[in-house]
Structure formats: C-alpha cells, structure tokens
Specification:
157 residues; 29% helix; 5-stranded antiparallel sheet; 3 helices; alpha+beta; two-stranded antiparallel sheet; single chain
C-alpha cells in the first residue's frame, strides 16, 4: 500500500544479505559486522565527514519499509541496534550514538529495503545539519572500522 519500489528494482541490500559482491553494490563481505538469522549489520559505504564508520542494519529478508516490516524483525533490529551502539562506544570512543530510519520518498528513503542507521556521535559533529556532505568510501577505508566493531561485538555479553 505504501510502497515505491520500482517493478524492476535490483535491491543492493538483498545482495548484501545474500553475500553477493558486484560493482553495482558498494558493500563487501569485510564490511559486515553482524549476521544472525534475521538481521545483518554492516559499515556503511557512504559517510558523513565527522561520523565515520556508521552501521546500517537490515532485515535478511526483503521488506521495503517500516509499514511492511514484521514485528519479530523490528524487535531483532532494535536488539541489534543496541549491540551496535555499545560496540560503537567501545570501538570508536564516541561520545554518543544516534539512530535513524527513513520511509518513502518524502521521508528521504533512498534504498527500497528497510534499513536503520546507527551513527557514532561527537560533540559539535553537525550530523543533522550537514547531510549533503556525505561521500563514498572504499573497502580499504571501511576495513579498520569494521575490524574494530567486530572485536567490540565479540566482547559484548
């Protein structure tokens, strides 16, 4: 009912969930920091200058937005966002954490697969006032962030 995905849409997050790498998908296997039965978390390929290494959480199965997402996936994504937030604090030494999630074009949804951003935050980082400055990173730029997060997640109880 509230869907905007084009009929011939090739979902990049479904490719991530399937472990597929290609030139049209920026995320690589090394970016993945969390994988369980319902949720996958990976270091985002696009960064804001003062918030490097933020994580995107997705359901393994394809649901376009929050309106379609089953409750059990929502609960698991919330649990995963808490784990990622704790890992960000340990791995990056950030001063805080923010989450956000977008739905439909007017809500600034750009990928037609439900996803939740978990950002490391720092005093004065201006994350919400400087959104136009995000940039594409390389796998080699993301790798150290993913490695730190994997280590921090392994140490969480």
């Amino acid at each position: 009912m509230y869907n905007h995905e084009p009929q011939d849409y090739s979902c990049p997050f479904c490719a991530v969930a399937a472990g597929q790498e290609s030139e049209s998908v920026y995320t690589v296997a090394d970016d993945v920091v969390l994988r369980d039965d319902l949720v996958i978390g990976f270091v985002s390929s696009h960064w804001w200058p003062r918030n490097p290494g933020h994580v995107i959480l997705i359901p393994r199965d394809h649901y376009e937005n929050i309106y379609d997402l089953p409750d059990n996936y929502g609960a698991e994504i919330f649990k995963a966002s808490r784990r990622i937030a704790l890992a960000l604090k340990t791995a990056y030494g950030c001063e805080g954490v923010s989450t956000r999630q977008h739905n439909e074009p007017a809500g600034y949804q750009e990928v037609w697969h439900f996803h939740k951003h978990v950002f490391p935050r720092y005093s004065g980082d201006q994350l919400y006032t400087r959104t136009a400055e995000r940039f594409l990173t390389t796998p080699s730029q993301r790798r150290p962030y993913a490695e730190k997060l994997k280590a921090a997640l392994a140490n969480l109880k």
